[in-house]
Batch of 4 targets.
Target 1
Amino acid sequence: MISLRLLSRMSFAILFAIAATTFVAAQQPPVQIKPIRPSQKASVMQTIGVTDITITYSRPAVKGRTIFADAPASMEARAKGEATLDNQNERKAGEPIVPYSHVWRAGANEATLFQVTDDVLINGQPLKAGSYSLQAIPGKDEWTFVFNSDPGQWGAFTYDSKKDALRVKAKPQTVNESQEWLVYTFDPVTPNSAQVNLRWEKVSAPFTVEVKDVKALWRSKADALIAANPTNEVLPLQVANTYAADKNWEEALKFVDQSIKIKETFRNLSAKANILWSAGRKDEALTVANAAIAKGKADKVDTAAFEKRVADMKAGKM
């Protein structure tokens, strides 16, 4: 026969288990079915040097509709100033999808998201690293692109110009071939810049993203990473190899020596030998190369390929 005390303990255990299960269930995200949207989501990314630029947006289709045009009086009456008219629930048949002089989400569904990992210049004007909602105010002869510090809004219904981080002007271009689905592209791209193109219907609206000094930014990131990891010999070696690829032998040797000082390995010694050889310091290169091979053999590293390279160096084949 079960005692009252044991029964009480069992009841408590059962209640605790039920409560724990309920708590765990409450922590789980709700089960959802991903909807099918007429304007499908897309994302495009471009790296400039070490800076990533990502645009996430939804792609509405033309569907035979009027896209860019002046807003008729009936439409203007629904909004003051540049307030958005991008509301399909209020839009009447024949009214333009993107009326001139009004804020547009530059896409569909959620606000278009513009993310950049470092400070950049947009059409020559500074924009801090971060996430922004990207709006546009189209015009027949001139567009305004708006980078707003509220990246989580739906459309442009809660758009607040007081949160604008930057506005830039853009010159729209008329193209012959109609683009059915709105698309963003990066073209052309240079070592320190990329042109962003919004293409929809027969309109292309561009703006330029520029990294002011790609090499200086890369160096500052490398220095910070090395400083945060003072016992990691691979990081300064990676910097050395980057400088070597740029034929900056002085900086390459500086960083490979830093790597060797942290921990001498076949990898950094052979890298130093290659740098010295490329810099024209051949006698020093061969001395370091011999040390690299000895270190590799001591550490049971496969040195065969490097030994062949050193043999070619000595034979004057390189």
Target 2
Amino acid sequence: MYVITGITGKVGGAVARALLSNNLPVRGVMRDVSKAAQWQDLGCEVAFAEMKDASALADAFNGATGVFILPPSDFDPAPGFPAARLIIDAVVQAIRCASPEKVVCLSTIGAQAEKTNLLTQRTLLEQALNALDLPVTFLRPGWFMENCALDVVSARDNGVIHSYLHPLDKAVPMIATADVGTLAAMLLQQEWQGKRIVELEGPQRVTPNDIANTFASILGRPVVAEAVERDAWEAIFRSQGHKHPLPRMQMIDGFNEEWICFEKPQAERVMGETELEVVLRALLKTAG
């Protein structure tokens, strides 16, 4: 039995579908009862648990051949990441109690970074899971191509995308969530000992100008990228409802200054197959 947390999201759903396509047993962990039927119709078992409920998680992980850990993302964390720490503690307790055969954890590019930033939540998770006495793989993907969902309306309606990644011609390792899910499903089916890191990026690195040009190609009209100046970030993020914008700002700094980066040589990295155009077409199709 393969247990998938975050099954109702893009990555978790992709992991589950990949396993189900191979006729493997899947138990999806979710908190929303209304989303259970669609997964049960696909042949999944369903378990209900909040990610901070160690007891419910342990029940969900019981008897698992492999567990996929995808904690919810907190884009506006309070200082010290208290919400993330509660979830991490619950996940660790549940794994210790249930003793699954192995764990695949969705981490992130730059989890090894020493500077505090939004992705430090994944650093803390890696550190906690590293202390467990069972096989764990940390899957570290690059920047998700689906983050471009924030650019769809302005690209389509105004012919511009507003980029926090600087400079506009600097390439960033990006990956489609479908490729993350496919690889995670493969890793769950593998056997290994101890702890390992698997890094993942797409078929080519992407610049903000590439994103604008790809939108332009799809839409059939000009789209340009404009840089959002660093001095404006805090006011913008606060206007969007952020109470603690600094971690997000520091994360973007990390990509721009390249201290958020892959840890291993490229020769040891897994390369995804999904092109940026495929992702942007899907985002435009579903945009309101």
Target 3
Amino acid sequence: MSPIDRRQFLQTAGAAAAGLAAQSDVRATSLEKSESASQARLFVGCCAISYSRSFRSGQLTMEDFIAKAVELRVDGVDMTVYFLKSTEPGYLANLRHLASKNGIAFSGAACGSNMVEADAAKRIQALEDIKKWIEATDRLGASHLRVFAGKLPAGATTDQAVGWSVEVMKAACDYAGRRGITLGIENHLGISQHADTLLEIIRRVDSPYAGINLDITHFIPTPATDGYAQIEACIPYATHTHIRHKFDSGELIDLDRVWQLFAKGGYKGYMSIEYENENEEPSTGVPKLVGELRKLCTKYSTV
């Protein structure tokens, strides 16, 4: 083959390869929009706060919790930051290394920062606090952090509270996004317990790094929208979950019905136990709930 022939061959082959790659990209994009986007991927997780009494009494450390996750055979753990010994880089790096050695993923971290503050200085402080926990989440190697909106202050309106939340959340998402971390507002403790208010915050923040840490327990039902309807409305924005047996009213939750909603919504992520049951110790209650969740994930997930 002459040099000219070789050049022509390479040019032709290159053009053909580029054409095939383009077709492949089109097929992949099409698949993502049609099939994969609607396929649920549900994983069993556990939140550290499920063992809050043991942490607070000093009987359990985060290292112990990672070992317990191995015993439970969960896919990932949510590292509630209240129980971290410190935010020193070395300590967080050791936890990350220990989890990796044991095949345990960090589904995320959870802090207690509130964004609904009438005082502008307090909103600045809330943002700085969230930034601190974003950095800790990054060092852990997790990609999700739970935050709270907060309770409505006396004399304030819901519209004002939404505006304050959006102000803090926008800036926090900009900061988190540079680290590839998503912030999930939990529907707990105040204005976020109404799905329409929570969704308004998410829509106004308008960031790919803003989502909902969807706790299936805490929505306040209305005559028009019960707990299940509000859960379903928020699933398209869900970036993490917390799972319990009961609504705040004490009514038992139909977990199979909830899993059907997540499967229908094509949710991809962790179904994380946040165990709170005064009538049974976590040592027996958590493994039982893990068993229930594993069956449901097997039933409704594509993995």
Target 4
Amino acid sequence: MPRRRPWVRNLGILFIVLWSLVPLYWTVNTSLQTDAQISSRPAHYLPPSPGLHNYRTLLSGDGEIPSTIRRSMVNIFVECGAATIITVVLATLAAYAFARMKFRGRQLLFYAVLATMAFPAYTTLIPLYRIMSVFGLVNTYAGIVLVYVSGFLPLATWILHSYMTSMPVAIEEAGQVDGASRMQILWRIVLPLAWPGIVSTAIITFLFAWAQFLFPLVLSSDLSTQPLTVAIAALQGRHVVPFGLLNAAGVLALAVPSVIAVSLNRYIVSGLLSGSVK
């Protein structure tokens, strides 16, 4: 048998970790420096006098760039929050119908919904843009939210369907014997039991929506609806932006999904595993 070389594996892991974390560290490092310190040579691998002046400027300062960042932060929370709520509500109803209700073509329709996840999302970009243009939904919250919901709904339905099919049917049958309607059973029995799956689905949907770039870039050409991820990229082409402010904006864009992913990691993992096991 060939001798194992654990140092090779450890070296590979170290390389991957450094490859992933060094850009993040450099973004944080730059955001804590002044413009003079950033432009000095040689570069400062540690901030000489770290400060939060760039963040204060973005969050409370005057000028076009801070106001752009603040508006885009509001946009991304509105769009991601609305898309998450609508997706979870629709996915819950759809998953319950596929898991418990008997109707003709149920399996065919369910697998057709899942099959949409096999298509690359960007192949639908031009048709979606034309549809949004016809209905006047370009540069609107509604247009971006609808696109997000259409993209995330199949995955959310799949995850919640796995939760609901794993729940005992006897509890729901007992509710039917007591005279409860379908909606009463869903609201009072199924939802409390499926709450971990609903939380997982909401977190995953919110993170996916936060990470979107190309769709909001195409569907929102002005600041009225541009999310933070798009606004940061747009600043580089339209303004002479201080690198400190630009990196501080990048840290703000990373902070929310990072906190959610770290603090709610167990819900995310359970949601992904539930959707992969049938």
